[in-house]
Design goal:
Elements lengths: L2 E6 L6 E6 L2 E5 L5 H10 L9 E3 L5 H4 L2 H8 L3 E3 L1 H11 L7 H14 L26 H13 L2 H4 L20 E3 L6 E3 L2 E7 L8 E7 L2 E6 L7 H6 L5 E5 L4 H6 L4 H8 L7 H9 L8 E5 L8 H13 L8 E4 L6 E5 L1
Parallel strand pairs: 3-4, 4-5, 5-6, 10-11, 11-12, 12-13
Antiparallel strand pairs: 1-2, 1-14, 2-3, 7-8, 8-9, 9-10
The structure holds zinc ion (2 copies).
One zinc ion binds next to loops.
């Protein structure tokens, strides 16, 4: 059986479980590990049965619980190489140091990592700011992250056992295994095939996916400023379509955000408005999916009813309207019970 479970969706955290055949994948890990596990259990999913985590992009609302979750389950994490590097840079604490100290750090890192090739480049000590999602409350992530660090089971063991992985404090970028994929190249994790495609968003190398399992095709695209032709092309012949419907244009324009943030959200590398999503659904979308799920709704600049009404109106003109069951993914509770 194929199952699609949205654990959380929105700028305070994103995570979805895709199950097909004997394989279960967590798409993004944007909530704390504890909360992810709580919601999985609530939705009837067993965290221990996850086979892998895949990451769409390095923004905090997509990776907040990543390290702890991957370590606790001992499962591989799939990124594009650029996203992995950006994530590592984000996690490396900002430090002020002299050039001599910096060289010393590079030398030590090189010596430590001689046995395991290709990991940390010297630029990890010179840092950029963490990328921010649309300005919906970001501070809570930091407190979550530090609470997670304190609770991490590996913290206690690393002193005694030299073969144990480094603690979160020693190396927050350490993961049980890292696998790279590339946009445009189909790959498989167990019984699920994944087709990653590039989306326009202000991250290092952001992607959406088409998942295929047991003949069921599920399209997944959030965090994109507009829908370019390559994305339109991917979102055809689907059984399920999960698409961002981030903000209502009027609410965003009249809302509390500073102008610079409004500009960013509205830009070609920001987020899809209800209006842009409706435009896609009424024109380029082929009307084939059994389920259409609106996702990544802003809590400050949108209302579920506005997103729903805009999409309903757009779908009204589609010949196969009855096939399109419209659902809204939520920030604070899982959306489950979707199976094929
Ligand atoms: Zn996001
Ligand atoms: Zn993002």
């Amino acid at each position: 059986m194929v199952r699609f479970t949205v654990l959380a969706s929105g700028s305070k955290g994103n995570s979805t479980v895709v199950s097909g055949g004997r394989t279960r994948i967590l798409v993004d890990a944007g909530l704390s590990c504890r909360e992810l596990f709580r919601r999985m259990k609530q939705a009837g999913e067993d965290p221990a049965s996850l086979d892998a985590i895949i990451i769409t992009h390095e923004h905090q609302d997509h990776v907040n619980g990543l390290s702890v979750t991957a370590r606790r389950l001992g499962i591989p994490v799939y990124f594009t190489e650029a996203t992995h590097r950006a994530w590592m840079r984000w996690l490396t604490p900002r430090r002020q140091m002299t050039y001599a100290q910096w060289l010393e750090v590079c030398r030590k890192q090189a010596a430590e990592r001689q046995a395991e090739p290709a990991v940390v480049a010297p630029e990890t000590v010179t840092l950029k700011d963490s990328d921010s999602e649309d300005a919906d409350d970001e501070t809570q992530f930091e407190s979550n992250a530090s609470a997670e660090s304190a609770a991490a089971p590996t913290d206690q063991t690393s002193d005694q056992d030299p073969s144990a992985p480094p603690s979160l404090k020693e190396d927050p970028t350490w993961l049980p295994a890292v696998e790279y994929f590339q946009a445009g190249e189909v790959f498989a994790i167990g019984d699920i095939s994944l087709n990653p495609f590039t989306i326009p968003h202000d991250a290092a190398d952001p992607v959406g996916f088409v998942f295929r399992a047991e003949g069921v095709r599920m399209g997944f695209a959030t965090d994109l400023g507009y829908i370019p032709p390559n994305v339109r092309e991917q979102l055809r012949n689907l059984d399920l379509l999960l698409l961002e419907s981030n903000h209502d244009l009027e609410m965003l324009r009249d809302g509390p955000y500073p102008w610079s943030v409004k500009q960013r959200v509205l830009s070609r590398v920001g987020h899809l408005s209800n209006e842009a999503t409706a435009e896609f659904l009424s024109t380029a979308y082929d009307g084939q999916a059994a389920y259409v799920i609106l996702a990544h709704l802003s809590e400050n600049n949108n209302l579920p009813e506005l997103a729903r009404v805009a999409a309903e109106r757009a779908l009204l003109g589609r010949a196969s309207l009855l096939a399109n069951r419209l659902l809204l993914a939520e920030q604070h509770q899982p959306l489950f019970g979707i199976s094929f």
